[in-house]
């Protein structure tokens, strides 16, 4: 049976093995797991205060990156696509996420040789942008297109540039009309038709914000960008994600948002 709770956020607790996380661009530095857990609990509290039913999956010490649950799936109104993560070590995270999502959406799954992380997929209305990155390949882009075009979505591949792990490190949605971007890390032409709001020049990693029904969650490490959003009338909730950032994580990474209508 598909559940119809109106707003759900699936999260996963911080693994005791977080310090052994996958890294692509960041140097490995010490991560305090207990601080990361406290920050994650505060993040979940913000989701709950925004009206979301938080469904937390259990942590597993053998899955260091599993707190970054977004990479396991792409959730749309009609269907959820289970990904095939670009880092092979992360594929063991999929079964628990699949079980949780099956209560809310019919499931499709990316097959070999496709690889895609959820962090490389940005849904804006009926447009689905898929970033080509170190984790996401063209075979997966083609599969996403075949799954979603029957539902009326346009799938738009785009390039991820610079030291940018995922597309959502460079661009996220503020609302249906506006995107928050670091223009150095994206091909702006791919996003024609949207209003692009640039991050503050001294905060290149600030483009990752989590869009909720009536607000966005942003990292407190980027106050100038948060102030820019607030000046545009956006309600901004700040969270400290500093320990998770050491694992190349950000605020969208830590939940799968399900909006039922």
Tell me about the biggest sheet? 3 strands, mixed
Structural class: alpha/beta
CATH topology: L-arginine/glycine Amidinotransferase, Chain A
Structural Rg: 17 Å
> What is the percent of helical residues?
10-25%
Helix count, per DSSP?
A: 6
- The low-confidence runs, each spanning 5 or more residues with pLDDT under 50, are none
Relevant CATH superfamily? L-arginine/glycine Amidinotransferase, Chain A
Mean pLDDT: 95
Tell me, what is the CATH class? Alpha Beta
* β-strand number: 15
The CATH architecture = 5-stranded Propeller
In whole angstroms, how far apart are the ends? 16 Å
Q: Oligomeric state of the chains?
A: single chain
Outline, from the CA principal axes?
globular
SSE order, one letter for each helix or strand: EHEEEHEEEHEHEEEEEHEHE
Strand order of the largest sheet: 2-1-15
Tell me what portion of residues adopts beta-strand conformation: 15-25%
What is the count of structural domains?
Answer: 1
